[in-house]
Amino acid sequence: MYSAAVDTLKTSDLVMWLIEPSTFIGAGERNILEVLSRAKVPVLLVINKSDTCDEDRLGKTAETYKAALHEAGAVPAGVTEFELVPEKNPIAVSALEKKNTDKLLGLIFDLLPEGPMYYDSEAVTEETERDIAAEFIREKCLKFLDKEVPHGIAVIIDSMKERPDGSLIDIDASIICERESHKGIIIGKGGATLKKIGVAARKDIEEMLGMRVNLKIWVKVRRDWKNNLNMLNEYGYR
User: How far is CA 21 from CA 1, 102, 138, 215, in A?
Assistant: First the structure.
């Protein structure tokens, strides 16, 4: 996953580095700085959670990272001053309170080169309905499962067929996990957790498709699937 993220820098037009209000620059941040110094594309520094601190702390954060970016040779493009005036500054944002997020989007559009129109203006996604259905199920797993379990799963749609009379769509899906113990957690006592996942996901899928859905979900164990290239390809992580 790390290699894939770094490789995208070769074909990216802009990199946005999202940080929190802090003057601490540790090994992880140093590694990111080293990677960004080789990016050869504009780097935009964004301080999120600006609602959690005062302007003095934001200023110190901005100056610390600005100096580090200059030192690494990855100076934020399009940014000459880190003024912390809310009306002017698109760098310090609050995703929670939507503070300056519109100005951040405006700056991103200004920095990105104009490209060809690959999709119709009405298009909202290039994903198929099967892919979106799988994501709805995975989203509910993240919502109803704790700790590391939901981060070690994949969801695949085994079949998706509309009945001849058009009354509903039958969907068979599989949740892939790495351990037998995780399977038990996903299913829950008496199948309660899996039922919650299925009911919530079905509602979203029905809203997307505009018709009733009969959703059946199985939980399967595939040990160490995240390190198996064939399984990664099978589950859509190419």
Answer: 26, 20, 31, 44
